[in-house]
Amino acid sequence: MRRWHDVEMKEITIAAVLSTKGKGGRTMVRRPDWWRVGTVFMMILCIALASGTASSARGEEAMFTVLNPLGKPPAITLVPLAPRPGTLDGKTLYFIDSGFPTTDVFMRELAATFAKTMPNVKTEFREKLGSFFDDDPKLWAEVKEKGGVVVLGVGH
């Protein structure tokens, strides 16, 4: 393996690297391609400055039209949190998996822990149909009907 201090450094000039022999054996300096790009950029910059100077000399102000990239966000409707029960005794506690990867493992373990430590609470594990973006009206109707409490696993 070579290290930076093992390499022998030689001083060379840019002209030596870019020079070529032309007709008649004369040395010609070949300009790199970025030189042309820089020249065009400088020409455009000079033209832009000259046109801006001319308009300001006439007393005119430059006018720019700018669009807002944020757009107009929709109005937000605030929804309050569900009321909290005073106690969980006698309630059905639903542990619902939303379909996020590996959430089901965590929710099953959480339901088992609640069943062991809180014998007065009935625990139920359910998997919501579809992805975590989709609605599951049958599941929500069951929860409302039984007056249950929901622990929804959404991942991360």
What does this structure look like?
By secondary structure, the protein is an alpha/beta fold. Among the domains are: 14-57; 92-153, no CATH class. The protein contains four helices and five strands, in the order H-E-E-H-E-H-E-H-E. The protein has helices at residues 14-18, 33-57, 103-117, 137-146; strands spanning 19-21, 27-29, 92-97, 122-127, 149-153. Strands 4-3-5 form a three-stranded parallel beta sheet, with helices on both faces. It has a two-stranded antiparallel ribbon with strand order 1-2. Strand 3 (92-97), helix 3 (103-117) and strand 4 form a beta-alpha-beta unit. The protein starts with 13 loop residues before the first helix and ends with a strand. Mean pLDDT is 76; it is low at 1-18.
Characteristics:
single chain, 156 residues, alpha/beta, three-stranded parallel β-sheet, 4 helices, 35% helix
What's a concise summary of this model?
With 156 residues, the protein is α/β, with parallel strands linked by helices. It has helices at 14-18, 33-57, 103-117, 137-146, and strands spanning 19-21, 27-29, 92-97, 122-127, 149-153. 35% of the residues lie in helices and 15% in strands.
End-to-end C-alpha gap: 44 Å
pLDDT average, as an integer?
Answer: 76
Largest sheet: 3 strands, parallel
* Poorly predicted residue ranges: 1-18
Question: Which structural category fits the helices and strands?
Answer: alpha/beta
Strand percentage, roughly? 5-15%
Q: What would you report as the Rg, rounded to the nearest angstrom? A: 37 Å
Give the tally of β-strands.
5
Task: Enumerate how many helices there are, as a single number.
Answer: 4
- Percentage of residues in helical conformation: 25-40%
Strand order of the largest sheet: 4-3-5
- SSE arrangement, N to C: HEEHEHEHE
